[in-house]
Design brief:
10 strands; Alpha-Beta Plaits; 10-stranded mixed beta sheet; globular; 2 domains; tRNA pseudouridine synthase A; alpha+beta
Length: 236
């Protein structure tokens, strides 16, 4: 996009993903000074991207829209391969858990994460957040027997540095009887990152969807100039 632009084009994303984390539903916007057909913008962007990224949709939006500040929530999914050894074909796209895990216990533990809490025990050092209070609207796990994967999904108003990967580690340990079933309320009280222990690998984490405060609507214009939003699929 920035090949000889006048003026330079700055892209604003809904948030950052750590190295190794994937995105199925990333959202970004930029101000576009040229008149080009919608299809030309879409094809032009994709022609310049590496093969591990794809723009899935491009739309024109209001100048008031902001991909970061208009976010009302995000949904993440963590994919965990179950087995004594990691599947080599999935090593870059799943985490790995070699212990027997009880799905019912995992889902019971996930219910304790729902609601507004201080997630100080679930944030890695290096976080720049002013507050560790976040709200989880929903959290659930399902077993994909065909893929031999445990998939854990979180929907919340925001997530701290490594928060999802730490939560997954805690509920997996509960599901494998490495922790008491009621350990999450205790972790909220102690506010001690060390007691949450492990951080699951980035390879299993996916940003699934970004929710906006206002509905993103495309226009019927044949040409686009102004603020553009792109929907991005990427893997790292």
């Amino acid at each position: 996009m920035a090949k000889n632009p006048v003026p330079p084009i700055i892209v604003y994303g809904s948030g950052r993903t750590d190295a190794g984390v994937h995105a199925i539903g990333q959202v970004a916007h930029f101000d576009f000074p040229f008149d080009l057909p919608v299809d030309a913008v879409y094809k032009g962007l994709n022609s310049m991207l590496p093969l591990d990224m794809e723009i899935t949709k491009v739309e024109k939006v209001s100048d008031q829209f902001h991909a970061r500040y208009d976010v009302s929530g995000k949904k993440y999914v963590y994919r965990m391969y179950l087995g004594q050894f990691q599947n080599p074909f999935k090593r870059n796209y799943t985490g790995h858990w070699k212990f027997p895990v009880d799905l019912e216990k995992v889902n019971h533990a996930l219910k304790d994460l729902i609601g507004e809490h201080d997630f100080s025990s679930f944030v890695a050092s290096g976080s720049t957040a002013k507050s560790n209070v976040r709200t989880i609207y929903d959290a659930s796990a399902q077993l994909d027997s065909a893929a031999n994967e445990l998939k854990i999904e979180f929907y919340g108003n925001g997530f701290l540095y490594n928060m999802v990967r730490i939560m997954v580690g805690v509920v997996a340990e509960i599901g494998s009887d490495m922790r008491p079933e009621d350990d999450i309320p205790r972790l909220f009280k102690v506010k001690d990152r060390d007691q949450a222990r492990r951080t699951m690998p980035a390879s299993g984490l996916y940003l699934k969807k970004v929710f906006m405060k206002v509905r993103i609507q495309s226009t019927q214009l044949n040409y686009l100039s102004g603020r553009i939003v792109g929907f991005i699929l990427e893997t790292d």
